[in-house]
Amino acid sequence: MKQETTQKAYELARQRYADAGIDTDRALEILSSTPLSMHCWQGDDVGGFETPDAALSGGGIQVTGNYPGKARNVEELRQDIEQAFSLIPGTHRLNLHASYGEFKGKRVDRDAVAPEHFSGWIDWAKEHAAGLDFNGTFFSHPKADSGFTISSKDEAIRSFWIEHALRCREIGAEMGRQLGSPCVLNLWVPDGCKDYTVDRYAYRKLLKQSLDTIFEKDYDQRYLKESIETKLFGIGSEAFVTGSHEFYMNYACASGKMLCIDMGHFHPAESIPDKISSILLFHEELLLHVSRPMRWDSDHIVVLNDSIYELFQEVVRCGGLGRVHVGLDFFDGSLNRVGAWVVGTRAALKGLLFALLEPTGQMRAFEDQQQFIGRLQLQELQKSMPFGAVWDYYCMTKGVVQEDELLDRMFSYEEKVLRGRR
Ligand code: RNT
Ligand code: ZN
Question: From the CA of 379, how far away is ligand 2's center (Å)?
């Protein structure tokens, strides 16, 4: 019965969109072939599996909340990710952090992580994901306590973290090689300080040197693509962040590395969508960290709000699909974490679908004719189009429940699985 109504509603919606010059089937094809990269770290509040447990400290990564049911080991995390994937339409990538290796009870420091610690994940991904992405973990570690890693003035600290970065490149390349899909390896370091430094130039010079060392060896782009993530400020690095937007933008241009822009890493009044065209004109590719900053880089769960609409509209309008990698980066420990993944990832997909259903050509034509009311009204028209019917149909064709059935699934998984974890 539900299937039938979903199908009928879609057919009516398809006609309405077709009348407005939009091909919904084509939009769904594109949506279906655009994987998002779901971050493993929403599953356990950025904890990871190091022994002894690395207490989350430093680096300005703040997870609040203590909702029961957090994944405590790799098996539980995989189980939760599989559950989340089963509620998200399409096949997606998984984004791992170096602290999520399988260290089998051994203490493996960051400068000793190796592909073997991720072979379990690679095997898992062969079955469950469209690919793996990866991140060095430059925080939650005593050697990051000073606030500086690869731009530290202490040579020993710098070398330690450079070694970590080198090993992460090796791991990422191995993931890409074995999975036949390039691994996007993102580098984010927390480096910065609380109060104003008088030595900005020196820190940034060190960062530049360290990056040059890290990227010296070339990897096959078919296996490894690398990005560097910019940031304006963090908790504990309010006054100065070595890897600022300008720093990485210039570094990316000079080195050919990809830029990663996180929606929470700018002044709250800045427009992230506005940056995309400027970046795509000078860079082959771009990595987005999709998140919902609230007053600051709070990493709230993504919902379908104006920033998400605008973000994906901009990607689509720029013809950026295929060049823009979409990674999710939020973490909330105050509620069902599997639900957080599902709600956030589905919201991002809905944002993309909404953008794919935009009559951009017609809007552009009105703009070129200086018929601005046309551009404005078409934007308003989209808001009353039967978008939900297209989304429901997409979920159905992917064998995934619709919005109104999600909560039941979340609650029953919580009841059956999450509540049993003490
Ligand atoms: C931190 C960066 C970074 C992290 C993850 C866990 O401000 O956004 O991407 O959130 O690596
Ligand atoms: Zn990020």
Answer: 30
How far apart CA 249 and CA 271 sit, in angstroms, is 16
Identify the residue whose C-alpha is closest to ligand 1 atom 5. Answer: 329
Q: How far is the CA of 375 from the centre of ligand 2 (A)?
A: 33
Give CA separation, 83 vs 19, 70, 107, in Å: 38, 14, 30
Place of tokens 């782009």: 221
Catalytic residue positions, numbered: 188, 229, 231, 262, 265, 289, 297, 299, 329
**DSSP readout, 246-314?**
HHHHHHHHHH-PEEEEETTSS-TTS-SHHHHHHHHTT-S-EEEEE-EEESEEEEEPP-SSHHHHHHHHH
Is the C-beta atom of 289 inside 6 A of ligand 1? Answer: yes
Helix axes 403-416, 337-356, angle to 10 degrees: 160
The fold of the 36-353 domain, in CATH, is TIM Barrel (3.20.20)
Cα 355 to Cα 128, 155, 393, distances in angstroms: 27, 48, 17
Q: b/e string for 161-194 if b means 16 or more Cβ within 10 A?
A: bbbbbbbbbbbbbbbbbbbebbbbbbbbbbbbbe
Assess whether the C-beta atom of 329 lies below 6 angstroms from ligand 1.
yes
In terms of DSSP bridges, do strands 240-241 and 192-193 run parallel, antiparallel, or are they unpaired? antiparallel
294: phi then psi, degrees, rounded to nearest 5: -120, 100
Taking the centre of ligand 2 as the mean of its atom positions, its distance from the CA of residue 52, in whole angstroms, is 25
Atom of ligand 1 nearest to the CA of 264: 8
Q: Is the pLDDT of residue 56 over 60?
A: no
- Give SS3 for 234: strand
Over the stretch 343-369, which tens digit does the pLDDT of each residue have? Answer: 999 999 999 999 999 999 999 999 999
Token output for 105: 């009870």
Query: 410 with 416: CB under 8 angstroms?
Result: no
Domain boundaries, the chain: 36-353
Nearest protein Cα to ligand 1, atom 7: 61
What is the token pair recorded at 358?
A: 């935009």
Q: What is the pLDDT of residues 64-84, one digit of tens each?
A: 999 999 999 999 999 999 999
The reply to whether ligand 1 has any atom less than 6 angstroms from the CB of 41 is: yes
The whole-angstrom separation of Cα 149 and Cα 137 is 11
CA angle centred on 58, ends 55 and 59, rounded to 5°: 125
Answer yes or no: is pLDDT of 171 > 90: yes
Residue 34, token pair as written in the block: 């655009």
